[in-house]
Specification:
about 110 residues; alpha+beta; two-stranded antiparallel ribbon; 2 strands; about 35% helix
């Protein structure tokens, strides 16, 4: 039996500090991490609905919604909510994963 093994290395991608995976967001919520003011403001302005998949949430499940900054700048928080969209944790993870996948497929190094 041939004992040679092909080693596959996982691509090394550096995520900007602003990106969090769905697991990180859920863990922080469970740990009771402080919720910023803009999150509650975005939920009030845009409602308890995911802007991507359209899933509607009840108040008790609002922890499954995150605020996505459209321009990627988490410090850009206009009071009218124009830079925010509420995304469920799955769509938010998918949104940030698309850039990584695109870079990987284009052969960009991070």
């Amino acid at each position: 039996m041939n004992s040679r093994r092909t080693k596959f290395r996982k691509p090394q991608h550096k995520r900007p500090v602003t990106e969090k995976s769905a697991e990180e967001i859920i863990r922080e919520l469970k740990e009771g991490a402080p919720v910023s003011d803009y999150r509650e403001q975005s939920l009030r302005i845009h409602g308890l609905i995911c802007a991507k998949c359209g899933r509607e949430f009840e108040y008790k499940d609002r922890h499954l919604l995150t605020v996505h900054h459209k321009d990627g700048n988490y410090r850009n928080n206009p009071p009218d909510g124009s830079n925010w969209e509420n995304l469920c944790v799955y769509c938010h993870d998918d949104e940030h994963g698309r850039g990584l996948l695109g870079d990987y497929l284009k052969g960009k190094k991070g």
